[in-house]
Amino acid sequence: MPEEEVLRRAHEDEAEGKAPSTQAGEFVREEIHHVREGKHGARSAKQAIAIGLSKARRAGVKLPAPGSNSSESVRRKAAQDTKKGKQRKKRKPAAKRSRATKGALKREGRQSASPRAMARQARTSASRRTKGSRSAAAKKAARTRARNRTRR
User: Fold this and answer.
1) I want to staple 31 with a disulfide (CB 3.0 to 4.6 A). Which of 13, 37, 52, 82 is the partner?
2) Domain regions of the chain by residue span
3) How far, in Å, are 1, 16, 104, 129, 152 from residue 87 at the CA level?
4) 3-state helix, strand, coil in the chain (%, to 5)
């Protein structure tokens, strides 16, 4: 279950009209912190990010479905999480299942969320994008920064 502070920040982002990926970033950030402080581990930086995205979907963040290059199981899990996030009445997760998941994650390493590992992950995912896509993202970021600077 995400911490109250994370939920509050994500709701704040939603109220400000920020993109779902920005809202989900709060959950990913929390997950990275959990791994770094030793609450549990992760097999890779990608897994730590995936856990955060899963939590975001379950909390009701309207994230788009994973692309066609994702495996069937990943797409199914994302659909399941999205469905869970839309439910009004939240059911308490099974204690036995939660314990098993936490136990498995505790056996994983902590280096997967190190700054070096996160930088490597960011570089590899950026390298898969086209030059135009990266350029557009940078321009959008610059516009957002300029707009936010004038608001303050």
Assistant:
1) 52
2) 4-112, 114-152
3) 15, 24, 28, 34, 37
4) 70, 0, 30
